[in-house]
Amino acid sequence: MGKIVASDPSHERYKKLIQDTLERFPRDVKEKIEADLKKPIIFLISQNEYGAHDEGIIVLNTGKIDNEELCDNQIQYVIAHELTHFYLGQPPPMKPGMREQQETDVEQLLKKWGFTKNP
Ligand SMILES: [Zn+2]
Q1: Long-range contacts of 30-37 (CB under 8 A, 24+ apart)
Q2: Number of domains comprising the chain
Q3: What average pLDDT score do residues 53-82 get?
């Protein structure tokens, strides 16, 4: 897997949460993500969304996550959500409605795999 980059004091916590999240994916999905994720997971402290994905980069907005005191399960959901966009290889949404469709596809898979937003 791509290495995890962070200058954040909670780096170790997120590193563990990412690993724990990966363990919750079906084995074939986990293995594909680990094999394909060559670029680092990046931690940001200023952004509106909890997370983002682009060109094989996963971004976690730890500033927002920490400010809003998300619990471990909720953080794992954010990580799983962004990793699933990555797993599906979704391109940046260009057409109207494309983003909504991508979000629906991700949410459906997460539900199937047993991830829930709230504990
Ligand atoms: Zn999304």
Answers
A1: 32/87, 33/1, 33/83, 33/86, 33/87, 34/1, 36/86, 36/87, 37/1, 37/2, 37/83, 37/86
A2: 1
A3: 85
**For range 84-102, the mean pLDDT:** 87
Residue 67 alpha carbon to ligand 1 centre in Å? 20
Determine, yes or no, domain membership for 82. Answer: yes
The CATH number for 30's domain is 3.30.2010
| pLDDT band (50, 70, 90) for residue 50 | confident
For residue 118, being part of any structural domain is answered with: no
Instruction: For residue 72, report the distance from its CA to the centre of ligand 1, in Å.
Output: 19
Q: Which structural domain, as residue segments, surrounds residue 51?
A: 4-112
- Ligand 1 center to residue 24 CA distance, Å? 18
